[in-house]
């Protein structure tokens, strides 16, 4: 006689345990990526790089960049690169400020090296603006390589030549650089972004170099060989919000490599307010939703032509793309298990968060060493990247009894049974609640008290949950079919020269 | 103007290639700290 109650109970416990295990996927993917980083010491592209200084056409899309474009051009002209092998084409996307005058003055200052291309009808997005310039530079044979950048970024003098050396290998189609947050007056949010870029660029992209599959060429620093540019159609994709990623994928799908060069550094100004960050990242995240569907026949299908279909790369991609779903599933699993079998819930909670704690300590310590200057200026943000509350949750799992017993006992206090249940439920659901809190922080940021409350709130809930909440928002916007608006991130010329 | 001769550029590539070797001790240091935390947990909290 089968005891159906027992079978049902077993099935429910198993399903809920699997839900909790979903939460471990992004953590293990992160750990895997950062364990691959030291492999870059022996598996990198330097063995195939060689001195190579081709004619480079630089295309700078510009819309109302009068405040920054002049300095950007001066910096480009000061690059350590052979005279006469560099041309700058500023594609003015129907600017209404003094961008045309500034660029024309620079064209007179650097004759034959700086060109002003004007679009009379603008506002169609960066890809359309870039294509205007690309059509122009492909008209003759002068250009051997094309650098796509943003108007406000500053290339360090040796950065371009550190990128071109990889194009000496004909198998390489494109090269990208390390975009470093370079604002003079960093605030708490731009310091978080600075550390995020350490994690996502000189950290993760080294791991992707090792795997031989790169997720995205940075929009402000992508160098293409002419052959690659022509092979991918001589134009940038205009049908999605993630044109940089499309270009990256199309390059690799044609069997060419994309290389990340960690020693080519480009300084950029990043958002200083949650609203601006949300707008910028929502565009990126919606682009990724679109591309996940577009390249559905690529994922988890290993190929001899490229590595985008490898299991590892698919794991990296989907652990970010599905992060909000995985976090919510994990919370549901933990709370469900707590209601069915609180001891089992405690065991799986500890297992999950101990792995998370070890990954957190390892990745933050390694990342801080990868860019010591950013590590020093953003040490608070590095420590509090997952948020103070998540750190308390990690301590709860890692050091059993410390938060619930030992620390209260120091003050002569003791958790009541009810308080312990409330704390447990809070801890089990925190990864999902943190996304709600991040959404609240976005709305608080635009209010008067938000100016001083928001930094405190973000240090408490963490920067990671903000990115996670934005990804969730991107699902909603895509599901609703919201208009694809190419919102330009506001720049004020804060970048250090 | 920086010398952009072949020898200089080759030396720069070689320097960057060698610099990547630092990743190994950096990762080991981070792993050692993680192991130390696990030892503290095992000794004082279990």
UniProtKB/TrEMBL annotation, chain A:
Pfam families: Glyco_tranf_2_3 (PF13641)
Keywords from the UniProt entry: Glycosyltransferase, Membrane, Transferase, Transmembrane, Transmembrane helix
Keyword set includes Protease: no
Stretches that traverse the bilayer: 6-35, 311-339, 351-370, 382-400, 420-440, 452-472
InterPro entries to which the protein is assigned, alphabetical: Nucleotide-diphossugar_trans (IPR029044)
Family: Belongs to the glycosyltransferase 2 family.
Protein name: Glycosyltransferase family 2 protein
Lineage: Bacteria, Bacillati, Actinomycetota, Actinomycetes, Micrococcales
UniProtKB/TrEMBL annotation, chain B:
Keywords linked to the UniProt accession: Membrane, Transmembrane, Transmembrane helix
Transmembrane segments: 27-45
Top-level lineage group: Bacteria
Protein name: Uncharacterized protein
């Amino acid at each position: 006689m089968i005891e159906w109650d027992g079978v049902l109970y077993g099935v429910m416990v198993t399903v809920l345990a699997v839900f909790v295990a979903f939460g471990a996927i992004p953590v293990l993917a992160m750990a895997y990526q950062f364990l691959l980083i030291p492999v870059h010491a022996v598996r990198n592209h330097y063995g195939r790089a060689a001195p190579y200084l081709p004619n480079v056409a630089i295309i700078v899309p510009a819309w109302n960049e009068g405040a920054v474009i002049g300095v950007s051009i001066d910096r480009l002209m000061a690059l350590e690169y052979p005279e006469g092998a560099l041309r700058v084409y500023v594609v003015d996307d129907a600017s209404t400020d003094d961008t045309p005058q500034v660029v024309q003055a620079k064209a007179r200052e650097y004759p034959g090296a700086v060109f002003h291309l004007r679009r009379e009808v603008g506002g169609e997005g960066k890809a359309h603006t870039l294509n205007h310039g690309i059509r122009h530079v492909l008209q003759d044979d002068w250009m051997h390589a094309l650098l796509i950048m943003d108007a406000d970024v500053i290339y360090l003098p040796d950065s371009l030549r550190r990128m071109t050396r990889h194009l000496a290998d004909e198998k390489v189609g494109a090269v990208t650089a390390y975009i470093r947050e370079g604002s003079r007056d960093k605030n708490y949010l731009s310091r978080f972004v600075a550390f995020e870029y350490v994690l996502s660029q000189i950290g993760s992209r080294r791991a992707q170099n090792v795997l031989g599959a790169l997720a995205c060429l940075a929009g402000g620093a992508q160098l293409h060989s002419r052959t690659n540019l022509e092979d991918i159609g001589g134009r940038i994709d205009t049908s999605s919000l993630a044109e940089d990623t499309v270009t990256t994928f199309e390059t690799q799908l044609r069997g060419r490599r994309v290389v990340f060069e960690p020693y080519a550094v480009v300084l950029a100004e990043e958002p200083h307010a949650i609203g601006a960050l949300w707008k910028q990242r929502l565009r990126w995240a919606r682009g990724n939703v679109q591309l996940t569907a577009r390249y559905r026949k690529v994922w988890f299908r290993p190929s001899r032509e490229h590595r985008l279909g490898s299991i590892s790369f698919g794991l990296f991609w989907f652990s970010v793309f599905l992060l909000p779903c995985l976090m919510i599933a994990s919370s549901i699993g933990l709370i469900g298990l707590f209601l069915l079998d609180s001891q089992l819930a405690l065991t799986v909670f500890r297992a999950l968060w101990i792995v998370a704690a070890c990954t957190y300590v390892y990745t933050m310590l390694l990342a801080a060493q990868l860019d010591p200057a950013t590590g020093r200026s953003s040490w608070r943000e590095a420590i509090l990247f997952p948020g103070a509350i998540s750190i308390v949750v990690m301590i709860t799992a890692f050091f059993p009894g410390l938060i619930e017993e030992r620390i209260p006992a120091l003050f002569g206090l003791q958790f009541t049974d009810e308080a312990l249940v409330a704390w447990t439920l809070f801890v089990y659901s925190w990864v999902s609640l943190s996304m709600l809190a991040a959404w609240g922080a976005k709305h608080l940021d635009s209010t008067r008290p938000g100016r001083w409350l928001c930094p405190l709130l973000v240090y408490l809930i963490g920067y990671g949950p903000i990115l996670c909440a934005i990804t969730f928002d991107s699902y909603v916007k895509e599901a609703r079919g919201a208009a694809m608006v190419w919102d330009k991130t506001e720049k004020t010329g804060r970048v250090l020269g | 103007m920086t010398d952009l001769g072949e020898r200089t550029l080759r030396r720069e590539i070689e320097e960057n290639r060698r610099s990547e070797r630092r990743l190994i001790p950096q990762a080991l240091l981070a792993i050692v700290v993680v192991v130390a935390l696990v030892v503290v947990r095992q000794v004082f909290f279990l």
